[in-house]
Design brief:
The chain contains 16 helices and 7 strands. It folds into 3 domains: about 1-60, Single alpha-helices involved in coiled-coils or other helix-helix interfaces; about 60-270, P-loop containing nucleotide triphosphate hydrolases (Rossmann fold, 3-Layer(aba) Sandwich); about 285-340, Orthogonal Bundle (Helix Hairpins), CATH 1.10.287. The protein is an alpha/beta fold and about 350 residues long. The model is unreliable at about 1-10, about 105-115 and about 135-140 (pLDDT under 50). The radius of gyration is 22 Å and the shape is globular. α2 packs across α3, α2 crosses α4 and α15 runs antiparallel to α16 (about 325-340). About 55% of the residues lie in helices and about 10% in strands.
Length: about 350
């Protein structure tokens, strides 16, 4: 395929897509919701239109701070995000919250419904909350989270908060697509510290011990000191940033302003060192290859010849008559033979 042929096959925006793009750029919430629904769709015709839309909006995206937020069960993530989001809005920003909810096994839709858990924040015109079902994606991250971030940025939201399901594989995925990773922990330390995987602590750019109020305030302070000591034994994500460990109370608002200042300090520090732009570039390359992998699997599973062979090979693998590696190779060879005309 020549370069001219390749360029001619790039998605071309039609009048309807252009109208939707203009609505997103104007900050229209309904247009943004329609655009997100479009990019999250798995229909092949929708994917073509979504590609054209993303191409149109990409030059207007990227001007935000992307924050990943996670924490152990019961830490109060939604309460924190609501308090944090309102503070950031009051500081003159627009906030988009992308909450990756567990998916219903029946409908495939989001289970938790964060708009009901962030009632005050959802009433603010400067906030946009979008729960997205995680589906079957590894780690509980919606496959199109990166695209949704791009759309929100194009719509004028300059602070993007990505909330994960919990402490697990999703943290690594979120850290790979955001600028800064916030880890929320409960007061207590000790057993709590032992129960948190070392790898997740190493991902953190800011550690916040939440619920530091009332009878737990002193306990939270001691826990923060324990976590601070533990972090000294771990390798930091950035050589230019020492991970702060703070206490806060999402319920009373104590420490929320300090957390936001830490975010601003982090952004400035990494931008001055050049690491911020380098990370964004690396994330863009990772996004490209992730899309290549997903698209290849999608194409393979949708190939008619492959689909006819899958039940027989799955049965052979399940019954132990064939190793999985051999079955996988046969499917790949069948797919490549069927599409060798691409060469």
């Amino acid at each position: 395929m020549t370069q001219a042929q390749a360029s001619s096959e790039l998605p071309v925006s039609d009048p309807q897509t252009e109208s939707l793009a203009e609505g997103v750029l104007a900050g229209q919430r309904r247009a943004l919701a329609r655009a997100i629904t479009l990019v999250e769709s798995t229909r092949s015709d929708h994917r073509a239109v979504a590609s054209a839309l993303l191409q149109r909006l990409a030059p207007h995206a990227g001007n935000s701070v992307r924050l990943g937020i996670s924490g152990v069960p019961g830490v109060g993530k939604s309460t924190f995000i609501e308090a944090f989001g309102i503070h950031v809005i009051d500081a003159g920003h627009r906030v988009a919250v992308l909450s990756i909810d567990p998916s219903s096994a029946i409908s495939g839709g989001s289970i938790l419904g964060d708009k009901t858990r962030m009632e005050e924040l959802s009433r603010r015109s400067e906030a946009y909350i979008r729960p997205s079902p995680s589906g079957n994606t590894l780690g509980g991250i919606a496959r199109r989270t990166r695209e949704v971030m791009l759309l929100c940025e194009a719509a004028g939201y300059d602070v993007i908060l990505v909330e994960t399901v919990g402490v697990g594989q999703s943290e690594t995925k979120v850290a790979e697509m955001t600028d800064m990773f916030l880890l929320l922990l409960l007061p207590g330390g000790g057993d709590e510290l032992q129960g948190i995987k070392r790898g997740i602590m190493e991902l953190a750019d800011l550690v916040l011990v939440n619920k530091a109020d009332g009878d737990l305030e002193a306990t939270a302070g001691r826990s923060a000191a324990e976590y601070r000591s533990a972090l000294q034994l771990l390798h930091p994500r950035s050589a230019h940033w020492k991970v702060p460990v703070r206490t806060c109370s999402a319920r009373s608002g104590q420490g929320i302003d300090t957390a936001w200042q830490n975010v601003l300090d982090y952004r400035d520090t990494l931008q001055n060192s050049g690491e911020f732009d380098a990370r964004r570039a690396a994330q863009a390359r990772a996004w490209m290859w992730s899309e290549v992998n997903d698209s290849l699997v999608w194409a393979l599973q949708g190939d008619p010849e492959v689909r006819r062979r899958i039940p027989e090979l799955e049965a052979a693998v399940s019954e132990g008559r064939m190793p999985a590696t051999l079955a996988a190779r046969e499917l790949l060879e069948l797919f490549l033979k069927h599409h060798e005309r691409w060469d």
